[in-house]
Amino acid sequence: MTPATHLFKELLKRKIQRVNIIVTIQFVSAIALAFFTNFSMNSGMIHTRLTNPADFLTEILACFGSLFFVFGLILFLLTISQNERLNRDQTWRLIPITDGKFYIENIFSSFISLIYFVLVNVIIAFILLLICVLFNSKFRQNLGINIHPSLEFFYVIIVAILSCFFMFLIASFLNFSSIAISDFLPQGSNRTILFLVRLSIIIVIIGFIWKINSVFSFYDFFTGNFNLVNLKVTSLNSLVELENLMIVLFVIDLVILALNLFLINHFFEPEKK
After folding, report:
1. What is the pLDDT of residue 71?
2. Residue 187 phi/psi, 5° resolution?
3. Where are the alpha helices (DSSP H) in the chain?
4. ∠ at Cα 12 (10, 17), nearest 5°?
5. pTM
6. What letter would DSSP give residue 221?
7. Tens of pLDDT along 129-164?
8. CB burial of residue 78 (10 Å; 0-12, 13-18, 19+)
9. Host H or E run for residue 40
10. d(CA 103, CA 97)
11. 1: DSSP letter
């Protein structure tokens, strides 16, 4: 087993353990939320608004699905924070691979852990749905699932994936570049200077994204032509907008990834503990 493979497996193992904890908390929270929403205590008696005990399973399913976005955001923010801690950790950086490879392994293991989170949520939701169908006749009668896959749907998934990478990459770039710049400034460890440096970098990043977006905003990737006249809102235009957004995000991700690899290989040193 190569050091890179071993590193990836170890990073993924740790991150999946955290996902399991998050999903467990999410499931317990869904049960608690469903209980306190549908049951109340009055005069020492427990009262419920449910007419059928099987409806409680439906409530758990609804609460679990609603909490997906809350806990998904929490996990995403924790993952970004963990990525940057690992990038600064001297112990992990002692593994005999290049700093650039370590960074890529760190980013991709985090992305796989997020996919794992989504899959676990889908599996649990499917099991709850199946139980509701089996034991709740009213739910079974009212259940209607219409799935119509479209090109737009797949574009949205790709945009979500590219946006996820963008957030990972931009957090690293802000961290790498601000520390690299502050090292060349007097009193580089001063928090005020570090804040101003990061603020300046954020402004530059916003300007860069605005410029990239303006280049592609009038470009139609279906025809390969520039459309300088505002188009009417149609389903085709919606696809054009999504495709343009995909291209913009892809270009930005590539540029920031290249900058991050350059910075971590030449200017960003791990911290001693």
Report:
1. 95
2. 55, 50
3. 3-38, 55-88, 90-93, 99-135, 137-142, 151-182, 191-216, 235-266
4. 100
5. 0.80
6. T
7. 888 877 766 666 666 555 556 677 788 888 889 989
8. middle
9. strand 39-42
10. 10
11. -
Q: Quote the longest CA-to-CA distance of the chain.
A: 73
Q: Which residue's entry shows tokens 């570090």?
A: 194
Query: What one-letter code names the amino acid at 127?
Result: I
Q: What is the signed CA dihedral for 28, 31, 32, 38, rounded to 10 degrees?
A: 180
Which token pair is 113?
């852990």
Residues 6+ apart with CB under 8 A from 182: 188, 189, 193, 194, 197
Distance CA 219, CA 245 (A): 11
* 232-246 pLDDT per residue, tens: 334 445 666 777 778
Cβ-proximal residues to 228 (8 Å cutoff; 6+ apart), any chain: 218
Quick one: DSSP state of residue 112? H
d(CA 48, CA 40): 6
Instruction: Name the strand (E) or helix (H) holding 47.
Output: strand 45-48
Q: Side chain identity at 76, as an amino acid letter?
A: F
User: Checking DSSP bridges between strand 219-220 and strand 39-42, what pairing results, if any?
Assistant: unpaired
